[in-house]
Structure formats: structure tokens, C-alpha cells
Amino acid sequence: MRKRKGSADHDSSFTGNVTLLDGSSDLKQCHKKTDAASDPGGSGTGMGRRYRRGGLIWRLRRILIWVLGIYIAIPVIIKVCPSIQAKLVFLNFVRVPYFIDLKRPEDQGLNHTRNFYLQPEEGINIGVCHTVPSVMWREAQAKDAEWYDKSFQSSHPVILYLHGNAGTRGGDHRVQLYKVLSSLGYHVVTFDYRGWGDSEGSPSEKGMTSDALFLYQWIKQRIGQKPLYIWGHSLGTGVATNLVRRLCDRGTPPDALILESPFTNIREEAKSHPFSMVYRYLPGFDWFFLDSITANDIRFASDENVNHISCPVLILHAEDDTVVPFQLGKKLYDLAAQSKSLNGHKVQFIPFPSSLGYRHKFIYKSPQLPNILSDFLSAPHPHV
Fold it and tell me: Which of 110, 175, 196, 312 is close enough to 346 for a disulfide, judged by CB 3.0 to 4.6 Å?
């Protein structure tokens, strides 16, 4: 009986141990599940990582699809609506610097400058600025329109400045050039083409050239036989060669043409512009983009115009110009140098090394500019 009882006790004890072990096993499995959920290297986290990685890949794929869709849509939209391409050429809606009052040139340090408005066509008023030579600075203070008109009768020559696209006549690099030219003894007359700045109307190549011709004639009526030079920058070089070609065809060429950062024609410039880089090698690039420019009657064919120009031509171009590549300015010079109409006239090309950092619009900083102009125009500066 004792033996059986002991045996029974032994069995009972064994059973208890089994129950205890089973309970421990359940607890351990519960801990393992909890640890797996919190363990960085656990299988639960691995699944989470795969889920997050899959979500990231899907988001990247969606972004790529959107980018590709936009990339394809842009040339299609431009082809369907070529007027968009005209806006991109002119950029007249970009009015930098912002918050300046074009009626107050003195706010930009041009306190020997008169701002006024002229009407090249009925219903079109354009904003004009006339900066007198700096030697007349004191005399110019608080003077009226009549005084500024009479100031043209001085012995100082005049430069008609034709600015490029974007911005206004009050753009900083433009203002700095006016100051340089004024300090050298020149009258500087500049204006905003129709559609730019506070000038009325809509931009077009024909309208820009017409405005430039109107201003040229307006100046000529006031200065008589004194020298009148035309200076164009960037897109303004296309306007300048259009204008000078017209004047030469009439037998009344200007005294000289100065082209800063010029191009050959608008198609070659558009193809070379940094904005076209992502599409340049796209099949049909010319059809999508360049033909859309031509459809707006925009050519600015300086390479053709130089064959009809008969006055001295000076070309200034920086080697590090990324907007209008240096090679386009050099190519235009080569064409001008071979032009029969320019035979017997001075044609000069002045490159500015990349090390100077003048890029597209800072040639006015060159300390050599006064000597370059003096040598090219074969005359000392008026104030000397």
C-alpha cells in the first residue's frame, strides 16, 4: 500500500512537473512572439521593411511616371500652342528686379536721368530713359524735359541701347552699363519694347524693331550730325541688326554697331540654350520647338543681316557665357568678316576669357572696356 501510495505520489509529482514545464513553454513562446515583434532583426520587422521598401518603390515609380508624362507633354503642348514658345523667347513677363519704380530712375542711382514716354504707334506708349554724360550731372539736377532735350545739342555722342529678353530697362546689369557709358561721356538712351516693363502692347520681333527704329529717328532729329551708335545685348543684338539693316538699306547707316553677347539666329540660339538641353537630342526637336518659334514669325537672323550692313561692327563676348554660347558670337563675327557689304568697314571681335567671370551680362565690369571703345571708335572718350 505504501509502495503504491509512493508510486501514486511519484506519478502525481511527475504530472505536476509536466504541467509546470508546459506552462513555462507557453510563456516562453509568448515572450518569443513579443521579442520577435520588437527585435530589429526579427522576421516581423523584415516583413515591415519589405512593405516599406515596396511602398517607397511604388512612390518612386509614380514620381517617375509623372516626370515622364510632363517631359512628353511639354513639347506636345508647345506644338499645339506655339504662342507659348514666343513667351519663352521674349520672357517679357519676367520683371526683375521686382518692386522698382521705373518712373524714378534716381532710386537706382541714375539721378542724371529723365524717364518719359513716347508713342511709336497710336495706342502704344513705351517707357524711355535718357541718361546724360556724368560731366553734366550737377547741371542735370531737378531739370525738366526741355533741358534734357537741349542737352542733346552738346558735343557728346549718343548710344541707343537695346536690351535683351526678360527684365526691364531698370535691370541692374543694364543700369550699371548706363553708368559706365555715362562716365565715359556718352548720352545713353534706352527703352522697354512694347510689352516689356511699363510699356504698352504685346511683344513681337516686328514690333521690337519698329520701336527701335522710332527711337533712333527720334534721337536723330535732336542730335543732327553728331555720332549715334547702336548697342544691342543678347536678344537685343537681333533687334539691333534688324534696325541697322533697315537703316543701311535706306542709305542712312549709324556711325557704329556694337553687339554684346550676340547669336547668329534665334533657331541656333534656342538649340544652344541651357533650357533646351533636356530635349536637344529628342527626335523631332526642331519640329516641336524650333518650328514653333518660326510659326510666331520670330527669326532674329543676324547672320543674314550682316550681309546688308555697311557700318563698323564691334562684337563683345565672354567665353564663359552659358546663355548665348561663345561659339555663336564667334560664328557671327566670321560671317561678318566675310560680308561684302562690310568690306572696307572695321569689323572687330573682342573675347573675354572665362577666368574673368563676365558670363552673359557682366562685360560692363571690364576695366578694358573704355580702351576697347576708344580704339574701335577711333576717337578719345568725349570727357577726356
Answer: 312
Considering the candidates 112, 187, 360, 381, report the single residue annotated as catalytic. 360
Tell me the per-residue pLDDT of 260-314, one tens digit each, with 9 for 90 and over.
999 999 999 999 888 777 777 778 888 878 899 999 999 999 999 999 999 999 9
Q: Which superfamily does CATH assign the domain made up of 99-267+300-377 to?
A: Alpha/Beta hydrolase fold, catalytic domain (3.40.50.1820)
Domain ranges of the chain: 99-267+300-377
pTM equals 0.82
Q: Look up 360 and say whether it is catalytic.
A: yes
pLDDT at 29: 52
Q: With a cut of 50, list the residues of the chain below it in pLDDT.
A: 1-25, 27-28, 30-38, 40-41, 384
Alpha carbon distance, N-terminus to C-terminus of the chain: 140
Active-site entry in 134, 151, 182, 234: 234
Determine the Cα–Cα distance for residues 50 and 55; give it in Å rounded to an integer: 9
> Does 211 participate in catalysis according to the annotation?
no
Active-site position among 192, 211, 303, 321: 321
CA 119 to CA 190: how far, in whole Å?
15
Cα(326)–Cα(320) distance, integer angstroms: 7
Q: In the chain, which residue ranges form alpha helices assigned H by DSSP?
A: 2-38, 43-80, 83-90, 137-140, 145-151, 172-183, 205-223, 235-249, 266-272, 285, 291-295, 302-305, 326-337, 369-376
